[in-house]
Amino acid sequence: MTWTLTHDVEVFLDAAGASLTARPAENTLVLTVTAALRLGGPRAFGDADPLLGWWRGADGRVAGTLVQTPPRPPVLALVAPEAVGPLAAALSRTGTVPAEVNADRATAEALATALWPGHRVVQEQRLYRLGTLTPPVIAPPGRARAATEADRELLVRWHHAFGERTGQSVAHVERLVDERTASGRLTLWEDGGVPVSMAGVSPRIAGMVRITAVYTPPEHRRRGYAAAAVAETSRAARKAGAAEVLLFTDLANPTSNGVYRRIGYRPVSDRLLLAAVDR
Fold first, then answer.
1. Under a CB-based contact definition with an 8 Å cutoff, are residues 119 and 276 in contact?
2. Residue 223 has what pLDDT?
3. Is 180 buried (19+), middle (13-18) or exposed (0-12) by CB count in 10 A?
4. CA nearest 130: which of 249, 30, 19?
5. pTM value?
6. For 175, which of 89, 134, 217, 278 is 20 to 30 Å away at the CA?
7. Which of 25-29's residues contact partners 24+ apart within 8 Å by CB, and which partners?
8. Sequence-separated contacts (24+) of 167-175 with Cβ below 8 Å
9. Whole-angstrom Cα distance, residue 100 to residue 276?
């Protein structure tokens, strides 16, 4: 029973890939991050190599995974309780103790307690799964369309604003916009020919996609544009063959949580982003 750490995404996926794809909803973050690393290379998210790890239990099966793409915190998925202490020890031995961790509520709290003298909650998120899609009863004016290269300047600006609002890194935004646009994974809602909201979708992996980068500029909010954009993006993902359509929300934003529940999303699990605090 041990953690194995590596900087090589292919080595990681050879060992842990089957366990990840067996439960794609619960492993959505690790699956999409490793897919991006395979596509964009080890520096796809920043200027340092990623750290990836997996835990094998007494039966030899993978029962925990970790992916960190500096400067982002490590993301953990489905870690067995008995693997948390050994992970803290492994990170300490390698000198890679992070300042933050992102995991399900129980794992995050247990790892934070093992790593740091004190910690605080930075963000609480909820993972939702699409059940029966129910588009807004009263649709806002306008229509959805696929983003194109002609929208690049706007999309880059909106991705920067989305990152600043959510606390996500805005490194390599231009490349991200280009990749999503080229693959048809960005949808714009426009009203009177003017783009007023956007929603993205991750690549399909093991039948799973995740709605991402939902953003509406302040001057266009509270008019139903985001709900319409997400509903259309969700519908298109289902039509294209996605068995699981997921999204994350910030629990501090009751408006967005209410909107997504109304169009058919149902809670799956909660995650915490915790940060170290010195006592």
1. yes
2. 94
3. buried
4. 249
5. 0.93
6. 217
7. 25/127, 25/129, 25/208, 25/244, 25/246, 25/268, 26/77, 26/78, 26/268, 26/269, 27/65, 27/77, 27/78, 28/127, 28/202, 28/208, 28/210, 28/246, 29/67, 29/75, 29/77, 29/102
8. 167/122, 167/123, 169/45, 169/46, 169/71, 169/72, 171/45, 171/46, 171/71, 172/40, 172/44, 172/45, 172/46, 175/40
9. 6
Structure tokens at 108: 């995050």
At 279 the pLDDT is: 53
**What are the structure tokens assigned to 135, written together?**
């588009």
Name the residue among 28, 82, 32, 25 with its Cα closest to residue 55.
82
> What is the CA angle 14-18-24, rounded to 5?
125
Opening angle at CA 127, ends 74 and 15, nearest 5: 45
Q: Which two tokens stand for residue 43?
A: 């520096």
**Judging by DSSP bridges, how do beta strands 208-215 and 244-250 pair with one another?**
parallel
SS3 211: strand
Alpha-carbon span 229 to 250, nearest angstrom: 18
Question: pLDDT at residue 57 above 80?
Answer: yes
CA angle 262, 156, 46 (to 5 degrees): 100
Beta bridge partners of 249: 126
3-state secondary structure (DSSP) of residue 127:
strand
Measured between alpha carbons, how far is 101 from 209 in angstroms, rounded to an integer? Answer: 23
CA–CA separation, 235 and 233 (whole Å): 5
Whether 276 and 115 have beta carbons less than 8 Å apart is answered as yes
β-pairing, 265-276 vs 2-6, is: unpaired
% of the chain residues with pLDDT over 70: 100
Rounded to whole angstroms, how far apart are CA atoms 11 and 5?
10
